[in-house]
Specification:
CATH architecture of one domain: Alpha-Beta Complex
Largest sheet: 7 strands, mixed
Protein name: Enoyl-CoA hydratase/isomerase family protein
Number of strands: 9
CATH topology of one domain: 2-enoyl-CoA Hydratase, Chain A, domain 1
CATH class of one domain: Alpha Beta
Number of helices: 16
Keywords: Hydrolase, Isomerase
GO molecular function: 3-hydroxyisobutyryl-CoA hydrolase activity; isomerase activity
Helix content: 40-55%
Organism: Diaphorobacter aerolatus
Strand content: 5-15%
InterPro entries: ClpP/crotonase-like_dom_sf, ECH_dom, HIBYL-CoA-H
Structural class: alpha/beta
């Protein structure tokens, strides 16, 4: 087994295909090799009538579970984007194709979303039929921190959260717990972390009449989720419904309470340009199919790296967070008050004619 292949472990036991993400030191952040392994495995299992369902988990530093997936490998993205490595383009095209496949697999897909579930980790779980969270789940789409946007179908699934929760999560990158994830329609059921291993083993050792029987059995293992972490639905729905990111920031700053002040301070740290792009993304995606949203996101990510040569918000954001680690990104423009509407709209112009789009085949 090659080192690359060892980052994704797959086996079939009984009637279920089991996938374990095995890059614990990096919190199972997805590399291009991992995306390719996952795609190849799922395509093969989709056609195999003996495999009735798929289950996926992440290895933590102390063994199975404990960390699902912290996202994509942002250091790779920074290096590839800085030197023009074409594997950057491959990574996003193939990752988004993987996200689409999970949503359209046609079999139960059981995601054990224990520990950190962020970014790319959401992309390989949100299409599941059983999205299981635990008391250790920390869920977020934190891409605005690095001058990116919530991709991997984020426009699609965040825009379908209740009220304006999608806009709030997309713009702030705030982290929620398992109970909130269920309330916000980003998870289906709760399981205590000490029950995960038993459920995983039973999926492979029992005999099931059908995929539907597997789905019913896993749902029978859910227990009440308990309390949410935080979040103020009344404020979220009021402020994050405003027309622009600038309107949202200014309105929050005018409000005296602590939640509003904290939220405004968070937004002031994000890329001003990408705040407006992200708000537009989520609102457009509300009216889109998953395939349409993924094609839009593929356009957006191309522009994130190449729309303004030498001035990528994403490369600057990753530099500040993960490369130089100075946590002081130099955003351009520096203030949300200075974002020009025409620059936001340029992100939504596809670089490809429809027939030649890298994701043209998605339906």
């Amino acid at each position: 087994m090659t080192e690359m292949a060892a980052e994704v472990l797959s086996e079939v036991r009984g009637q279920v295909g089991f996938i374990t993400l095995n890059r614990a030191k990096a919190l199972n952040a997805l590399s291009l090799g991992m995306v390719r392994d996952l795609l190849a495995t799922l395509l093969a299992w989709q056609k195999d009538e003996k495999i009735l369902a798929v289950a996926i988990r992440g290895n933590g530093k102390e063994g199975a579970f404990g960390a699902f997936c912290a996202g994509g490998d942002i250091r790779f993205l920074h290096k590839a984007g800085s030197i023009g490595n074409p594997e950057l383009e491959d990574f996003f095209t193939e990752e988004y194709a993987l996200n689409h496949l999970i949503h359209t697999l046609g079999k139960p897909y059981i995601a054990f979303m224990d520990g950190i579930v962020m970014g790319g980790g959401m992309g390989i779980s949100q299409g599941g039929t059983a999205r299981i969270v635990t008391e250790r789940t920390k869920m977020a789409m934190p891409e605005t921190i690095i001058g990116l946007f919530p991709d991997v179908g984020g426009g699609y699934f965040l825009s379908r959260c209740p009220g304006r929760v999608g806009e709030w999560l997309a713009l702030t990158g705030d982290t929620i717990n398992g109970a909130d994830a269920i309330a916000y329609k980003l998870a289906d059921g709760f399981m205590p972390s000490d029950k995960l291993a038993g459920a995983w083993e039973q999926l492979g050792s029992q005999t099931f009449a059908s995929g539907a029987a597997i789905q019913q059995w896993i749902e029978s293992q859910y227990v009440p989720a308990g309390e949410g972490a935080f979040g103020n639905r009344a404020h979220i729905d009021r402020f994050f419904a405003l027309p622009t990111a600038l309107d949202i920031v200014l309105a929050l700053e005018k409000e005296g309470d602590e939640w509003c002040q904290k939220s405004a301070a968070v937004l002031r740290k994000r890329s001003p340009l990408m705040l407006e792009v992200v708000l537009e993304q989520v609102r457009r995606a509300r009216e889109m199919t998953l395939a349409e949203d993924l094609r839009m996101e593929r356009d957006l990510v191309r522009h994130c790296f190449y729309l303004r040569p030498g001035e990528s918000e994403t490369l600057e954001g990753i530099r500040a967070l993960a490369v130089d680690k100075d946590h002081n990104p130099k955003w351009n423009p520096a203030r949300v008050e200075d974002v020009k509407r025409e620059l936001v709209e340029a992100f939504f112009e596809s670089p490809w004619p429809a027939h030649s789009h890298p994701l043209a085949a998605l339906a």
